[in-house]
Amino acid sequence: MRRSKHGFGIGELALGPVLLFVWGGGAPALAASSDVNASVYSKVADAEARIGRALSARDGKAIATVAGDLGHLIDDAIARRQGGNAATACDMAAHSLAYVAVSLAEGLADKGDARGVLIEDARAAAADFRGDMQACEKLLRRKPGAHTSVEKALKAL
């Protein structure tokens, strides 16, 4: 078997960064990131259910409250991003659901053409939310859910 002129093979090159990552403390940082994503996921899933119930009741104030709660998640994501971390699919799901909530809260309060435009914006954002939540579940290695409750409630509206 021939050896490379450089004294090490491609397999040894690939192992080096992995060992540095594990020994250098990268694994705990990755686990902490996973915990943050799991926490964001559970809060967003709860907010999704709350928006679905509030939308069925046509309760704009409850939807606005959920949007405020999601705002805290978005602020935390921005702080993590400024700290050098990338935004994850779970952070994007929180953002798209907050957009749905704000559009719905204002759409329920408005009348006429403005209401129609806001509801259409909410429908588009709900489709984005579904995709973001499925990407978040994939990131967390969870079984993908449908996440269509908000879209179904919007169709009934």
How does this structure look, described?
The protein is mainly alpha-helical. It has one domain (32-156). It contains six helices and no strands. The protein has helices at residues 10-23, 26-56, 60-82, 89-109, 113-140, 149-156. Helix 2 runs parallel beside helix 4 and helix 2 runs antiparallel to helix 5.
How many distinct domains?
A: 1
Low-confidence region ranges: 6-31
Question: Would you tell me the structural class of the helices and strands?
Answer: mainly alpha
What is the beta-strand fraction? Answer: under 5%
How are the SSEs ordered, and which strands pair?
Layout: H1 10-23, H2 26-56, H3 60-82, H4 89-109, H5 113-140, H6 149-156
Helix pairs in contact: 2-3, 2-4, 2-5, 2-6, 3-4, 4-5
How would you summarize this macromolecular structure in one to three sentences?
By secondary structure, this protein is mainly alpha-helical.
Tags for this entry?
157 residues, mainly alpha, 6 helices, globular
